[in-house]
Amino acid sequence: MDAAEFRKRGKEMVDYVADYLEKIDKRQVFPDVEPGYLRPLIPDCAPQDPESFEDVFKDIEKIIMPGAASPACTELETVMLDWLGKMINLPEEFLAGKDGQGGGVIQGSASEATLISLLAARTKTIRRVQSENPELTEAEIMGRLVAYASDQAHSSVERAALIGGVKIKNVSSDDKFTVCGSALKKVLDEDKASGLIPFFFCATLGTTPCCSFDRLLELGPICNKENIWMHIDAAYAGSAFICPEFRHLLNGVEFADSFNFNPHKWLLVNFDCSAMWVKKRSDLIGAFKLEPLYLQHHHQERFRSLKLWFVLRMYGVTGLQEHIRKHVRLSHQFEHLVLQDERFEICAEVVLGLVCFRLKGSNELNKALLKSINEAKKIHLVPCYLREKFVLRFAVCSRTVESTHVKFAWQHISQLATDLLQTWEHDDHQQ
Amino acid sequence: MDAAEFRKRGKEMVDYVADYLEKIDKRQVFPDVEPGYLRPLIPDCAPQDPESFEDVFKDIEKIIMPGAASPACTELETVMLDWLGKMINLPEEFLAGKDGQGGGVIQGSASEATLISLLAARTKTIRRVQSENPELTEAEIMGRLVAYASDQAHSSVERAALIGGVKIKNVSSDDKFTVCGSALKKVLDEDKASGLIPFFFCATLGTTPCCSFDRLLELGPICNKENIWMHIDAAYAGSAFICPEFRHLLNGVEFADSFNFNPHKWLLVNFDCSAMWVKKRSDLIGAFKLEPLYLQHHHQERFRSLKLWFVLRMYGVTGLQEHIRKHVRLSHQFEHLVLQDERFEICAEVVLGLVCFRLKGSNELNKALLKSINEAKKIHLVPCYLREKFVLRFAVCSRTVESTHVKFAWQHISQLATDLLQTWEHDDHQQ
């Protein structure tokens, strides 16, 4: 939607809201529909091609308003997550369908999804261990539980363990910053030998520092064999799986118990919209007792599935694929520009929209370069450490980014590097 | 704001957003301001009288845009919670001020606030007990921790304990559905004698079933003496404390460690905006290690303090007080109508905007009445049980509610009761 259409549609929406409020006392206080009314009214997968705003909007009066906030909100969410699940070719076990055991739910962030799966895994494990060892108290079992994640995983995994009151250990990633089966196996064997109970592994697809991918096909069978809940955090990278050429990165998801990615990160849906799927909804219901989708009852008021519905229909699958492909193309464009300049190096394989790079030289030199880039305020980069190396991260993420912006950014960085290196050599900062 | 002004302002906002997006490439990518820039730019308390939309909006360009999302978002939130805290006359220890140890933060719901305080209390207690008893492991301590709340408390307290992996016990409320000091003392003594470690008490001001109030002035000193974290959940009732005549209900808050109420429930702020204050921010930082306001970093993108800023300024303190007083007046109007009808009884003291009432008679009769009310779909009531009694709840909550609506509702209920009683007696349903 361009700015002109946005102005037009936005103003129509303002009138729609004002009309609604003015006539609210003419509306029924409770909907007539029966639970389950919504699914038969809409297609069972997202459209390939874009639909017009008018067509999508017409369905608001036709499909949503008769169901008001409840049950329309919950039902649309379930159906939208089936659409999205099909777009990334999730195994059918993760879909709700008409009467599946799995299904999806919208969370506020990947951190929440990780926490919820860890807690569900904790409850499930405590019950299993207690049934096998009735002499153990819940507290004794809790004290022996261990969760795992890559040393490259997001800090929210550690925080989830902290909240859940269980131990967490890092699994060492290899020289490509990915966790392989043997690394997990090693730490599991040690921990089991010392009496601990491994119960949860969070695999990362697209790590925050350098967008590396844990090896699901090796890790999954180990987790399944050891009764370990495997959760997959694909917060950023998950959106790319709608393109067949990137879907192989998700191979092995069939071994997972839960999977999450954030359409608000890279699929043009406004914050917040973090999509989470589980194979067995009953695991969540079991863990939280009181409500099927715990912590979520109050989120109904936000009706987050509406924005997903609009985006999926107004872009269509092909439009969203184009968006992803363009970003990946632009990050490769940046990668090539870096590679043509002998002063620089690429620090991790460029798979999606992130390029990790640095000047060949000390961390101090690279910190100085970052400082001059960010102080100029033309572009903004967030750095990271990969092992002991201080690394700059170029992330393609705006909806409106074009090749000219990438060129501009590289020329700017390159010029600042030239300026810096002149002073740097002159001042003899090198150590 | 009436519908006409809403149409005008809404459309101006659409243009503002479109202009912003069209010219985004002319904006700096990072703000020039220094952390702490915002507080000196705005008053240190909410205005008494309403300000115009123009005046509030002008400050967006002047105060917010130069600070972009960060640090403006965090800083405005801290200052707005100081404003709100002052409006309900919270003890100064709970305010952030320029360099206080306390302060407020916006959560998504009262459930989240309860969870966060329980987790902070858990960490604090484990550290204290471990320093006093170095021979105890963390798991052993965890296994002995107990949290408490009224048998009238919201289910989210139980869920928080479930998530935190600690025991929770109900404290019996008295015949007014409130928890008094002796009831808490009794269960604490029993539990301590059997080796448990009481660590957390959630007091409720304005319970969900009947809006009863726990006795803070008795409970607070007990909690302080016993090293028990006292959290106060005033989700609904808290908004009323902006009126001096209701502020006494909050007396005793000075004994609490944390306090929460939901401006999105009764202070005309859109969902979600749940205000939480702590006396010691370091307790939260200590509990979650990684970030001062854990689970909240991703919420920055929502900038929830903006809507609080607009509402507090456009209504002013007096406008919001009027809103609360009107609702309380209308609930008393409904109470009087009920009391004039001898077929009905009032089931709990009417303090704020909620009236619990029922037909004198069996639960079955009252269930039948509720069914006929909700099936008519003119008004909608959510029932509850008070002890063994099935009770109907009339809640005044709409921004636009007037005395005529209350009269209409009562006439409608009264007529349905007449119809029901005729059939009921005829069919001899009574047991």
UniProtKB/TrEMBL annotation, chains A, B:
Pathway: Catecholamine biosynthesis; dopamine biosynthesis; dopamine from L-tyrosine: step 2/2
Broadest EC class assigned to this enzyme: lyase
Modified residues (N6-(pyridoxal phosphate)lysine): K265
Source species, domain of life: Eukaryota
UniProt EC number: 4.1.1.28
Classification via CDD domains: DOPA_deC_like
Keywords: Catecholamine biosynthesis, Decarboxylase, Lyase, Pyridoxal phosphate
Cofactor(s) listed: pyridoxal 5'-phosphate
Cellular component terms (Gene Ontology): cytoplasm
Gene3D superfamilies membership: Aspartate Aminotransferase, domain 1, dopa decarboxylase, N-terminal domain, Type I PLP-dependent aspartate aminotransferase-like (Major domain)
InterPro entries from the UniProt entry: Aromatic_deC, PyrdxlP-dep_de-COase, PyrdxlP-dep_Trfase, PyrdxlP-dep_Trfase_major, PyrdxlP-dep_Trfase_small, Pyridoxal-P_BS
Any one GO BP annotation for this protein: amino acid metabolic process
Example GO molecular function: aromatic-L-amino-acid decarboxylase activity
Complex and partners: Homodimer.
Family listed: Belongs to the group II decarboxylase family.
PANTHER family: AROMATIC-L-AMINO-ACID DECARBOXYLASE, GROUP II PYRIDOXAL-5-PHOSPHATE DECARBOXYLASE
Record-given protein name: Aromatic-L-amino-acid decarboxylase
Source organism of this protein record: Anas platyrhynchos platyrhynchos (Northern mallard)
